[in-house]
Amino acid sequence: MSERWVVTGASGFLGYHMCKFLVKKRVKCIGVDINPFEFEDLKGKVEFYRADIRDFEKMKEITRGADVIMHGAAALPRWPKDKIWDVNVNGTKTLLEAALTNRVPRFIFISTTAVYGIPRVHPIAEDYPLTGVGPYGESKVAAERLCEEYRKKGLIVSILRPKTFVGSVRLGIFSILFDWVYRGKNIPIIGSGNNRYQLLDVDDLVEAIWLVAHAPPEIANDVYNVGAEKFGTIRTHVQTLLDYRGRGRIIPLPALPIKIALRILEKLGLSPLYEWAYETVDKDHYVSIEKIKKKLGWKPRKSSEEALLDSYRWYEKHRNDVEGKRGVTHTAQWDEGVLGIIRDLFF
Description:
Radius of gyration: 20 Å
CATH superfamily of the largest domain: NAD(P)-binding Rossmann-like Domain
Oligomer: single chain
Order of helices and strands: EHEEHEHEHEEHEEHHEHEHHHHH
C-alpha cells in the first residue's frame, strides 16, 4: 500500500514542490491550505482540502490514516502579528494534537533559521540558543517548543530549520530583487555585501524532508539545519544575477541610516521589507549542515548562487504571468511601495 502524506501549506512555494515530488514518487499526497490550490500541473493528482489548520476536527479528519504529516503551513512575516502567532503556534498545536490522536507515525515541522536571530558564531549549530527576531521568528521558536512537548507524549517529530530557500515559483521578497534585475537597474545593497550568506535550493530541501521521513525513529526524532553547502556573499549572489542579465551594477549603501529608514518605512506601511530581512542582510548568516549530512546522508546538489539564478530564470520566463498575482506570500509578486518610486528615481 502506498504511503499517505498530508502536506500543509500545499498551495505555497514549498508545498507545491513537496506535492510535485510526492506525485513523482507515486505517494498518496493530501494537500491542505487555507488558499486555493492553483497549480495546473498537479490538478487531479493531489487530494486537496481547503481548510484551516486551526480547525481541530477538520485536521483530525484529514490526517486520519496518514503515515507522514509535513507541516509547512505558516503565516509569513508580513502578516499581522496576532495572526502570525495564532496560525504558527496554535495551528501547529492543533496539528500535533490531531497527529497524536490518530497515531500518525511521523510529523515533520518546517521551522526556520530565523529562530537563531542574529548570531555571533558561525557556522550556527543546532544547539545555538534560540532568539527569534520579530513575530515570525518568535512564533517559530514557540512552535518548536510545542514539538518538543509532543515528543514526550510519544510522537516522532522531526524539526527542520532551512535557510531561505529559492527555486521555481519563488517570488515574495525575491520578486523585488528580480524586478529590479529584469529592468536593468543598479542594485543597492545594505553594507559592503561581503558578508557570507547561505541560501538553499527548494528541491534540496524536499529531498531532506523525504530522507528524514524514512530515517530510523531515533534519527528522525531530532532537529536539523538545512542549507546549501557551497555559498558566497550577498555581493556574489547579486552579481550572479547581474552577470546573467548583462546590465546593472551593485551600489553599496551605509547600513545604519538605511536600516533606520527601512524601519520607519515599514512602520508606516510604505515598504514591504520586514525586520528580519533588513536587519540580517548585511551580516554573516550561515548554518552548519554537518549533522544532517552525517545522520541522514543528505547532500545538497546546488550552491546558493545556482539556486538563486534558477529562481530568477523562472521569474524571467513567467514575468508576464506573475505580474497580476499580487499578495504577501512566497508565490505572489509583492507590491514594492515606495521602493518602486526610489527604483525609478535613483537607480
